[in-house]
Structures
1.
Amino acid sequence: MPIFAAVDIGSNSVRLKIARLQGRRLRALHEDREVTRMGESVFRTGFLSPDAMANTIKVLRRFHRVAQRLGTDSVRVVATSALRDARNSRAFLEWVRSATGWRVEIISGLEEGRLIHLGLVSSAKVNSLPVLMIDLGGGSCELTISAGGHIRETVSLPLGAVRLTNEFLQHDPPRKSELERLHGFIGRELGRVADRIIKARIHSIIATSGTAASLSAVCQKLSKNRASSVTRLYMQRMAKLLVKSNIEQRRRLPGIGPRRAEIIAAGAVVYSDLLEHCHLRGFRYSSLGLRDGLLAQMAAEHGSTASSKQIESERRDSIQAAVKHYRVDISHALQVRDSAVQLFDRLKSVHRLPPQYREWLSAAAMLYEVGDYVNRNGRHRHTYYIISNSEILGYTLEQRRIIAAIARYLGKSRPGPADGPMKILAPEDRENVPKASLLLRLARAFHLARSGAVQSVGVRVHEASIEFRLSHKRRMGVDLELWAIEKEKNYFREVFGRTLSVALA
């Protein structure tokens, strides 16, 4: 039973959750959290402060010892808003690696929203009607509209509690002019999404993270109600109470710790204004969040779990959105994808690629023509850039780079170790990408004329050769397809060490 660890380096705090995969479910073994305020100096100066970095490294070393003691099989460490904004983030990433051996992945706001969504739908019963998920952290606020387990839309706004406190609230309690500027900024940012949230006809609202937990605890005390829901009316009352209180008064409120009291006023104003601007009744707090999404993702990549279908659905939805946006010929893309996957399956003994390459090859087949949207001249380079830099949800940056590299080499150029797209890959991927890219080149060759003439491809594997037998529509020619396959024969021998022949069935 594998054990996974998820580490979230946020703008306000650093969190750890370790879980064991039992059957198809995850069982929590250990949780830890500490406030380090990584974002405090970033939002003021643009740089991570030495003290914040040192304190965070100290916490990460503690997390590392726990992960080792529990025999963790896999660890994923992600960083969010503060590291996205910091100009010296690279120095911190190297410090983490030297101190723990961990590689930190800086994820985008949209990927953060996707993982939070995954954590919620994988571990809790979420209504099939439209749901708004809110995660207000230290540096940003992720808003995700979900329906039937599918993400309709995700947006990341710069409305984190640490960021807003540093930017707008210079006095304790805040002055009226400071609050007016704060409300104005929040209103401007919410104006980007309020109409879409209203039109979505949200049925329920789920809020995650520490600010929501504190507000929920305060609401329960004030209303003498044990329910975890916070109505818009109580949220407005709490916001007014918190901005009029000084820090000592806020610290005495239930559920608000000494460090949370420093930033809770800004967070409360965001929630109050969000409910007001978007005509929402209130929210309920959930303890699930980003770490749960990371654990669900790791468990699904390890094997079939309750989250596997959810992740497949997210990837499929995101790829289809990209295909539509870049005006890719969907019929042709599906034909090429099906042929590429069939080649992968039938030539396993030849290419010996890791199983995950099947998914990456499928994605590359769907997206290999997105570069045409920019310009057909240099379209393969454009394709690489778009795939590696786009928000294709469900794939890490490294995975997107692999997918992009597979799709990159469909023209005259061949993947070489000195090429930019290849140099940034791990050594094993530098060996595997040329094989996957060649499978995609062949799949495209089967459908080069876009006529649908080739109906199926039979594959015969011999000790020193591979034979393709093309079944085609009798009244339609396949000369272009045969010509394209012929061009790949020498490269096929170079990559796989076998001769390639083709015949008509």
Note: The chain has a mean pLDDT of 93.
2.
Amino acid sequence: MKYVELNNKLKMPMLGYGVFRVEDGNVCISAVKAALEAGYRSIDTATIYGNEKSVGVAIKESGVPREEIFLTTKVWNEVQRSGNVEDAFNKSLEDLQVDYVDLYLIHWPVKEKYVDTWLELEKIYKSGKAKSIGVSNFHKHHLEDIKKVWSVVPVVNQVELHPNLTQEGLQEFCTEHNIILESWSPLAASKNDLLESETLISIGKKYNKTSAQVILRWNIDRGIITIPKSITPSRIKENFNIFDFELTKEEVVTINSMNTNERVGSDPDNFNF
């Protein structure tokens, strides 16, 4: 496992396991336990995923000490609109059966709310119940808005990022402010043709790796945290097996050139949830 040091000196695994759209209950419990058994030490969930309780059970049953696991969850949009951020955070702690989370994120930049929400996250951070705080799905201008008020700099900005949406401009801005980019949907899950790319297949053959492994390694070689999701134990292990090779700078540039600015999810400036 490779780790990155966040701007608050906390170390975060560069590869994590995401549970977006992982069915609550036994499916989620088994998948998280399989990920921890495979060697993952970062688990990414969110209130809106509806599976925080299952993640908590899996962590308890895994036998992996809590302090070895980097646990992320997120505050949902309706909570931002209602202003009950602290209550929602405490409910997440209860559902996850933990005393703290390692990272708490604003899930989406809800118009006219995300600046106030950031100030609420700063209070939670200063309480010690969240070891670090950050944002998700923030464009540069959203970050500039909270920069006007922040006393705590976000440690990460978790965004959609894959070879068809390389986010190089956003990464440059984040790097200037010591914010690490984190990639959700790194394999562009609903665009299965990405994994059939001749470019990725060709690079993969050189290292005896799959297209998916090449993409995940491309994230890491760019200094980007990545959180692939799968519920298949063999795929969970395959996604983890990316630390025995490294892409060349030329290969990273080649994959960057696949950018089309094409999203599989919503644009953070235009979402209706």
Note: The chain has one domain: 3-191+223-243.
3.
Amino acid sequence: MKKVLVTGGAGFIGSNLIKALSKEKLKIFSLDDYSSGTRENEIENVTYIEGDISSISQINEEIDICFHLAAKSLVQESFQNVRQSFTVNVDGTLNVLEWAKDNNVKILFAGSASRHNDPTSSPYAMTKFIGEETCKLYKKNFNVNVEIARFYNVYGPNERIDDKDGNVIGIWRSKLVKGLPLPIVGDGNQKRDFIHVEDIADGLIKLAFSNKKSIDAWELGTGLQYSVNDLYKFFKDRFINIDCIRIDDQPGNYRNSFRKHDQMTVQLNWEPKDRLQDYIQNLD
């Protein structure tokens, strides 16, 4: 039976991935420091290890595949704590790759669509850029079996519903609970490729059990775009009495993001679905 490790396994994407992996004949481990993940996301028959990725070499299991999802993923937070972003996203990824090199582990690294924008636009973008490039370094020079899965704007079950630590949908859901207007950054015309977390999990599993390689990264997006204003219309259709408030544009808020190529759909028969409007329509 293959053994798999998910770093950040108690978090939003990690918990959904583990749920999907649990349907396979696998022994599953999670490594999470619970800084953003929660015990409520844990499921049965999974071994949960509390610790950060600096301690990954202390795992006494012969792991076959590691999904490296643990990261500091909030753009605005990265401006407030630059050192933490580098410690987790750069040094942490280096720890994982060194461990993989020493233990012959296949790595699936969670890259970011921010890679297609100026990496100096935010500490987050820079650290994820360096993370991807470090993966390529280890793949080329140390024969580490690592593939980069580049995520776009992920939403779905277990997303963080929080004014500060959520994505745009999580922030808005938190505002709804409090009866507050939904904040729209800038003019709201910035466009995003919103992808459901179940499609992310499906793509990661397809990559993990495939021998196919990419010289760059596998793009995990729908290939469709919605503006933030479009997103607000979906929320307005569902929650008629809500209102919005415009706030100043923020650093790191790039204008345009969508899947750059179809390598996943062509080579791995991955079929992400456009679920955004239906997802919002079914929110409580």
Note: The chain has a mean pLDDT of 96.
